[in-house]
Amino acid sequence: MTAVSTELRIAIIGGGISGLCLASVLEQYDVAKKLEIHVYEAAASFGEVGAGVTIWGRSFQVLRALGLEAKFAAIDMNKGREDEKFGFKYRRSDQGPNGHEYGIRPFPNGHAYHRAQFLSVLSDHVEQSPRIIVSFNKRLESVDTQNSLGNDPYTLRFKDGTTSTCDVLIGADGIRSPVRIAMLDVAVQETGDATLKAAGPAVWCGTSIYRTLVPMAEVCENYLQLGGNGTPLIKDGPIIYSGKGKALAVYPIQGGTVANIAINIMEGKQVGEPYPHGSWVSDVDPAFLKNEFEGWEIEVGALMKGVKKSSRWGVHVVLGLKSFAYGRIAVQGDAAHAMTPYNGSGANQAIEDAFVLGRMLAHPLCTRETVHHALKAYDSVRRERAQAIQELSFELGRLGTMTEPFDESADVEAATSARLLSVGAWVGQGDMEEEVQKAEVNFKALVNAV
Predict the structure, then answer these.
(1) pLDDT tens per residue across span 241-278
(2) What is the pTM of this model?
(3) The listed CATH number (3.40.640.10, 3.30.160.70, 1.20.1250.20, 3.30.9.30) that belongs to domain 203-316
């Protein structure tokens, strides 16, 4: 009987939350030490863009399984407020100086973090591991996928002129993922269906997010100057300030000393239309935002008065992948299903992807000869859920901006409130070990079917 080779060189492209979670899962669950784990990061060091990240109870199970619960508890901005009633309060804010609350979107046992601190816990964990090999300044340019249907290694070509090889390639490289493009090249070789490549490019979702930070002390001062009484409500927790076609999602960060503001202005465009604003990220004159929210409630005025600089982010998404894995290449996180930010689930889905994918790659059945089945088993349980949450996020964007097409006779505020309580309750629920077990059953079935 021919001996079966078991050692696999795993290349993870991307050292953000997605890639570092996967590396950590591989290290922990590869008890046979059959995997050689490499992380290639394009930047000179680990770093994360963005102010805050919310982790649902379901996704937190992964962090607990990695033994990181205590470290994350130490930086949890929501510590002590994990009950189901904590979440984004929704206010009608576009009808004069006095807004009113009309709904709440509960966080499912949510944990809130400063994004850079969150990544720091993961990067410290990875850098302390003797088994995870990290290479910086490695921006992937292309992948040689010739003979990809066999067991020959893939050749990775980086922007600095260097190359490397791997047996399994994982794209945790974000929305512009070159790994996704390489995976779809393999998909065409594997299936003969050239239309699969249409899902390669990210597309504009038809709206933009405007981001800014304002010191909370300044918000409070502005609030009093504009005629407010006491302290602004935003000091107590997250709020969606809603109006027709516009919304501000605001929550305290850095121990409540800073208001993190993300503004959604619907532009009346369709998903897939050309992005009209040039660069995906660009600076915006604060006067533009202040003008957009003229006449809104006093608290919004206090926030806008404090804006000194802001940026526009064209919200792009990755839609329609028929599989997250072809050959010995798989994608996860934004590389697989980049979504709008309205549900706060992008990082959560990346973490859950990493847990299932890592467990399949570390599984005793996973060898050089069966690894493509391991990747398909991952896809079999993760794609449907991640893409459903992607659709949910679109809906929450419409709910927040009061553009959800309810029946004409409906009270929009009441209908939105009811939907907020029911929609997506499943996002933070469920047992991640059960999801791994489903993938394992599918993995075994694929192996036994050969």
Answers:
(1) 999 999 999 988 877 899 999 999 988 888 999 999 99
(2) 0.93
(3) 3.30.9.30
